[in-house]
Amino acid sequence: MIDLKKELNERFYNSLEKCNFLNDVNELVNNEGLVNIDLSDFIKLSDGEITGVISDTIDNANDELNINTISDKKPNNCIINISYNTNLKLTDVDIIIHKIKNKYPDISIIFGASITSENKYKIQALFVYKI
To answer: Could you tell me the residue range of the domain that residue 94 belongs to?
Structure first.
């Protein structure tokens, strides 16, 4: 298990803790996926300000995404992982990513995708404003 407190900027780590996203980061960094998200992706953004998170499930890729906003700043970076059962299609991943791009046209997105046994899409996303 990676010690995120040692690896990430202290302020960023505390913000992850405050918005209840530490377990999500641990899960994303430590679990294998079809497309993996690495600790380096989080380290790269750890000098930024967290502006929102998604840690939710949706029934299908066309459902609305509810971003838990924690800052008024407009995010310019997003790390997102989409998990679904063995029927996960890249077109569904693309639909979900385009929803974020429609809301934040200038955002840079790092994405991961993984297979679960669930019949709902599990969305884990971190929105960051970084200078």
So the answer is: 4-129
The C-alpha atoms of residue 38 and residue 32 are separated, in whole angstroms, by: 10
Token pair for residue 111? Answer: 């994405």
Residue 55 pLDDT class (50, 70, 90 cuts) = very high
Number of structural domains the chain divides into: 1
Q: The CATH number of the domain where 31 resides is what? A: 3.30.1330
Residue 115 to residue 105: CA distance in whole angstroms: 28
Tokens for 93? Answer: 């991943």
Enter the DSSP assignment of 47.
T
Q: How are beta strands 77-84 and 108-115 bridged, if at all?
A: parallel
Position 3: which residue type? D
Average pLDDT score, the chain: 94
pLDDT digits (tens, 9 = 90+) for 23-48: 999 999 988 888 999 999 999 999 99
- The DSSP call for residue 78 is E
The CA-atom distances, in angstroms, between 116 and each of 36, 93, 99, 119 are 14, 14, 22, 8
Q: Which pair of structure tokens corresponds to residue 33?
A: 């996926």
